[in-house]
Amino acid sequence: MAITIDSTIAELLREKPQSAAVLQSFGMGCLGCAIANNETIREAAMVHGIPLDELTKKLGI
């Protein structure tokens, strides 16, 4: 599965478990959050005030 900015955090973590460290480096506690099942990478960046381009670059997507 190709991960995009419209993939959920849960999908990202399933496909790229190493992404957990990147999310944590941005202060995102998405790992155990129930919202991760439905929240997209785009939405999470917006909610957390993180520039989407910076996040996606670090995630390699």
UniProtKB/TrEMBL annotation:
One Pfam family per UniProt: DUF1858
Domain annotation DUF1858: ranges: 3-55
Transmembrane spans: none
InterPro entries membership: CHP03980_redox-disulphide, DUF1858, ScdA-like_N_sf
Entry-linked NCBIfam families: prismane_assoc
Name of the protein in question: DUF1858 domain-containing protein
Origin organism lineage: Archaea, Methanobacteriati, Methanobacteriota, Stenosarchaea group, Methanomicrobia
